[in-house]
Every structure is written in C-alpha cells, then in structure tokens.
C-alpha cells in the first residue's frame, strides 16, 4: 500500500470513529479544561474518602452513578458495564464481613495509561483518569492492567446517551468522578446520593487543599489504599478497611 493510500485510509477510519459517537462528544477536551474558562491545574488533585464503617447494604451510590452516566444493564452481569460496584469482603480468620464501593481509583501512576497503545487512556492534570472514546480501539489492555477490575468493555450498542457522557460500543469505560459535574463545581453523583439517601460514607474534594474537609480528615484520621503495595498513590482512600 502506498503512503498516500495509508494516509487516506487512516483519516477515513478516524472520521468514521468520530461519526459513530454523537457530535461534540470529546472527552479529550475535558482533559484540557475544567470549564470553558479554566484549565485543569496540577495544583489540585480530586479524590474520594469512603468510610466503610458507614457503608451498609444500600446501593444508592451505584444507582446514582449509573443513572447520571446513562449506564444501563442488559441482564448479563458478567458483561454489563459497571462504573461502580459494591464488593463484600470477609476475613477468613474471624468471619468479619465488610461492604465497600469499588470504582476506578484514579491513580497518580495509572497502569491503564501505561499500557494503552493509542493514548486513549489518560490522566488529567488534576488527577482524574479518563478514556477518550475517539481513540480507544477496544484492545482491553487497560482492563487487564487495572488491579481493581474497575474498567468495563462496552459489548452492547448504546442509545439515549447523555450530552456530557460519551459512550460507545467497542470501547472501554470506567468511573470518571463525574468529571462533567466536577468541572461545573458540583460533587460526583455517588457522593451526592450517599449523603442524601445512603449512609453518608463518602466525601469528595481536593486532596491538595489543606483547608478542604477531605484533606483535614486524611490528616487527622487513619485511612488505607486498596493494594497500597503497588505504590500507585490512589485518589480514592478508605477508612475502616
């Protein structure tokens, strides 16, 4: 194949991929701006603090996340997309059981970004890890690399997409910390629902802001990272784990 033909076919494939999603849905643009006026800043790092001693059997966070982001099931739990899920843990020695919500941990050093061959997986300057659906080729290397099982491959055709949340068959997706809400000054849907209808177990804020409630709690109270041994410096921390 001559170079001109390769270039033409490459452009055509990119155009077709763009056409497959609703016009204007570009997560890469969210990486460049927290809002139309303000760029994402390395001075900030958004994160979650989850007190699992307050986390019971309710699924307010899961329901709110999936409603906010237009994630629907197809009756196949083994393949349905899950941006957040409730996980039960039991100590084999004592039988003590705990329940916690598990989602993308928004690592400072995300393995999903390291293995992505196209750059579709990326981390914003403010710590939020995202997937650009226009450049994701569905190879699922990131799914294998994530130690938290937090990424889903979209097996089914999507419909009724929400303007702020692009989704598409054949791509990978995961929790975005509701980046569209964060960029307009709101909290993620899971946190809002937990504090309204759940056990008030979740807090959201800027981990770098010494005056923020989440930073003060992390300084004053012990917390844990899931798989801290991997040294990924996660943006999601747990208390009572």
**What letter string, H or E per element, gives the SSE order?**
HHEHEEHEEHEEHHEHE
- Return the CATH topology: Alpha-Beta Plaits
Question: What does the main sheet amount to?
Answer: 3 strands, mixed
Strand order of the largest sheet: 8-1-9
Q: What is the arithmetic mean of pLDDT?
A: 86
Number of β-strand runs: 9
> How helical, in percent, are the residues?
25-40%
Number of helices: 8
Using only C-alpha atoms, the radius of gyration works out to 19 Å
**Low-confidence runs (pLDDT<50, min 5 residues)?**
1-25, 30-37
- Corresponding CATH architecture: 2-Layer Sandwich
List the helices and strands and how they pair.
Layout: H1 3-20, H2 27-32, E1 46-51, H3 60-69, E2 84-90, E3 97-103, H4 111-115, E4 121-123, E5 129-131, H5 141-145, E6 152-153, E7 172-173, H6 179-182, H7 189-197, E8 202-206, H8 213-220, E9 236-239
Parallel strand pairs: 1-9
Antiparallel strand pairs: 1-8, 2-3, 4-5, 6-7
Helix pairs in contact: 3-7
Model description:
With 241 residues, this protein is of the alpha+beta class. The protein has one domain (3-239): Alpha-Beta Plaits, CATH 3.30.70. The protein has helices at residues 3-20, 27-32, 60-69, 111-115, 141-145, 179-182, 189-197, 213-220; strands at residues 46-51, 84-90, 97-103, 121-123, 129-131, 152-153, 172-173, 202-206, 236-239. The strands form four sheets. A three-stranded mixed sheet has the order 8-1-9. A two-stranded antiparallel ribbon has the order 2-3. A two-stranded antiparallel ribbon has the order 4-5. α3 (60-69) runs antiparallel to α7 (189-197). The protein is globular, with a radius of gyration of 19 Å.
């Amino acid at each position: 194949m001559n170079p001109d033909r390769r270039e033409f076919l490459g452009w055509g494939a990119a155009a077709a991929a763009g056409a497959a999603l609703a016009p204007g849905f570009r997560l890469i643009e969210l990486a460049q701006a927290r809002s139309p006026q303000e760029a994402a800043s390395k001075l900030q790092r958004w994160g979650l603090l989850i007190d699992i001693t307050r986390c019971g059997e309710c699924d307010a966070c899961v329901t709110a996340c999936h409603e906010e982001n237009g994630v629907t099931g197809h009756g196949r739990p083994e393949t349905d997309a899950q941006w957040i899920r409730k996980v039960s843990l039991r100590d084999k020695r004592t039988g003590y059981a705990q329940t916690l919500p598990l989602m993308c941990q928004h690592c400072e050093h995300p393995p999903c970004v390291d293995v992505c061959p196209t750059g579709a997986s990326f981390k914003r300057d403010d710590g939020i890890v995202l997937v650009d659906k226009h450049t994701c080729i569905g190879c699922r290397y990131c799914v294998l690399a994530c130690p938290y099982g937090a990424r889903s491959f979209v097996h089914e055709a999507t419909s009724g997409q929400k303007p702020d949340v692009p989704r598409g068959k054949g791509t990978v997706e995961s929790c975005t910390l509701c980046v569209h809400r964060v960029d307009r000054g709101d909290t993620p849907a899971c946190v809002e629902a937990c504090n309204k209808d759940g056990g008030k177990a979740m807090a959201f804020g800027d981990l770098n802001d010494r005056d923020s409630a989440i930073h003060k709690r992390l300084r004053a109270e012990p917390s844990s990272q899931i798989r801290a041994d991997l040294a990924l410096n996660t943006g999601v921390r747990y208390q009572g784990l």
